[in-house]
Amino acid sequence: MARSRRTLGILAGVAVVVLVIVGFGTWYLFIRDDAPEAANIETAGETLDQAGEGDEAAGASTLDGSWAVDTSVGSFDDFSGTWAGYRVDEELASIGANTAVGRTPDVSGTMDVTGDEVTAVDVEVNMTTLQSDSGTRDGAMRSRGLETDQFPTATFALSQPVTLPSGLGEGGTASASATGNLTIHGVTKEVTLDVDVDLSGSTAAVVGQAPVTLSDFGIEPPTGFSVLSINEQGTFEFQLFFTRQ
């Protein structure tokens, strides 16, 4: 009898260990929120340092001139290069809270600097190539939500000059606010972006985000059997590298 009890105890212990392992595996594979980190200037600065090696002299004492988005800096595979996209919280069936993040490297644009001001910024994003961690989500975005088949591009155009932050190009980062017209889903709204800037030689990193209320842009959250709800408040975020022309 004692031997049977010991055997049952061992089996029970093994069962508990198995349940713990299975539970952890389920959490790790299906439940944990492993969305990529939000855009930040420190990460962009690491890429910038590599791109600007040996190019310090090209920075000169003035930033005057035209700059263009440079997709050759960094890599999209690890999000070290140029990209733009969305970040929004959602509730998934049988999983719970999750952060959905979709990004694309297909960004083009220009920036004009005159004196101590950025006088123009025009950026275009190809929304049809947004990628997230779910092919199902990406497919849904083509006909629902962002409806990228119907609205394939998003744009931002600066509407007010931005005074260049002091100390830019002197070894540190700087912050600024940029007001302009953001067009998503065929709807244009004036927004103010919080941006961080870093400079190395003839290459600049511009990182930022803007809160987006989906209904303001006529976006109906694509909920369904697996997606129970999507937060009305999302974020448009970007990491751009500009090179002087």
Task: Provide a concise account of the structure shown.
By secondary structure, the chain is an alpha+beta fold. The protein is built from three helices and eleven strands, in the order H-H-E-E-E-E-E-H-E-E-E-E-E-E. It has two domains: 1-32; 39-244, Lipid/polyisoprenoid-binding, YceI-like (Lipocalin, Beta Barrel), CATH 2.40.128.110.
Description:
This protein has helices at residues 2-31, 41-51, 135-143; strands at 65-69, 83-92, 96-104, 107-114, 117-126, 153-158, 162-163, 174-184, 187-200, 203-213, 227-244. It has 245 residues and is of the alpha+beta class. The chain folds into 2 domains: 1-32; 39-244, Lipid/polyisoprenoid-binding, YceI-like (Lipocalin). It has an 8-stranded antiparallel β-barrel. The longest helix has 30 residues, at 2-31. It is globular, with a radius of gyration of 23 Å.
How are the secondary structure elements laid out?
Elements: H1 2-31, H2 41-51, E1 65-69, E2 83-92, E3 96-104, E4 107-114, E5 117-126, H3 135-143, E6 153-158, E7 162-163, E8 174-184, E9 187-200, E10 203-213, E11 227-244
Antiparallel strand pairs: 1-4, 1-11, 2-3, 2-11, 4-5, 5-6, 5-7, 6-8, 8-9, 9-10, 10-11
Q: Look at the structure and give the CATH class of the largest domain.
A: Mainly Beta
What is the alpha-carbon Rg in Å? 23 Å
* CATH H-level superfamily title of the largest domain: Lipid/polyisoprenoid-binding, YceI-like
Overall pLDDT confidence: 84
Q: Which class best fits the helix and strand makeup?
A: alpha+beta
Individual helix count: 3
Instruction: Please count the beta strands (DSSP E, at least 2 residues each).
Output: 11
Terminal Cα span: 86 Å
Poorly predicted spans? 7-32, 56-60
- Seen as an oligomer or otherwise, the chain set is single chain
| Percent of residues in helices | 10-25%
Give the domain tally: 2
Inertia-based shape: globular
Largest sheet: 8 strands, antiparallel, barrel
Q: Helices and strands, in N-to-C order?
A: HHEEEEEHEEEEEE
Instruction: Trace the largest sheet across and list its strands.
Output: 1-4-5-6-8-9-10-11
